[in-house]
Amino acid sequence: MKILAVSDVPSDRYYEYYRPGILDEFDLILSCGDLRPEYLEFLVTMARCPLVYVHGNHDDSYGRDPQGCICADDSIVTVGGLRILGLGGANRYRDGAYMYTERQMKSRVRKLWLPLKKHHGFDILLTHAAAFGLNDFETIPHRGFQCFHTLMDKYEPSYFIHGHIHRNYDFRIPQRDQHGKTIVINAFEHAVIDTKEQGI
Predict the structure, then answer these.
(1) Cα-based angle 16, 33, 182 (whole degrees, multiple of 5)
(2) Distances from the Cα of 147 to the Cαs of 2, 52, 152, in angstroms?
(3) Are 5 and 27 in contact (CB under 8 A)?
(4) Model-level pTM greater than 0.85?
(5) Which of 199, 182, 83, 80 minimizes the C-alpha distance to 131?
(6) Distance of alpha carbon 21 from alpha carbon 190, whole angstroms
(7) Could you report the per-residue pLDDT of 94-152, keeping only the tens digit for each?
(8) What structural domains does the chain harbor?
(9) Cα gap 11→121, rounded to integer Å
């Protein structure tokens, strides 16, 4: 399966400089948040494949959710045989609908025990925030969540895909990394993923 992952800022390649057919190669689009509904609606319309998203910390300012897209927040969504666990939002540094403390994020994870049991785990962890200490920042607004490590260590998903850590903040931020058996993807702007590399 060929996946386009997007987050935080629209990709000029797939929006401003869009060319007919450029999205045809993708079987699935994953959004890690902080993208306007109009952009996601454009992508899902032009690509004609499912678009699954989680909310970013700024999404409450947009006033509505994108139409024709699938929200994975606090659930496991299955597309093309891939089990996608969604946990949007970022570390709480102000009041906001999608802002969480570590304790609150752990509580969200605990509430997913039944879907996790029913689906026998998951293939993709889709979040807005990064994992703590894994290419995040020490400042609270961009600090990752420790409980994401727990999920990866226990269920060993093929991919952990997140946004929020803008790669233009620091040229040393990698787009791809590894945590155990899990490939970590920073989807800032866009990233292309071919699941054949993980044998799924």
Answers:
(1) 110
(2) 28, 22, 9
(3) no
(4) yes
(5) 182
(6) 17
(7) 999 999 999 999 999 999 999 999 999 999 999 999 999 999 998 999 999 999 999 99
(8) 2-198 (3.60.21.10)
(9) 31
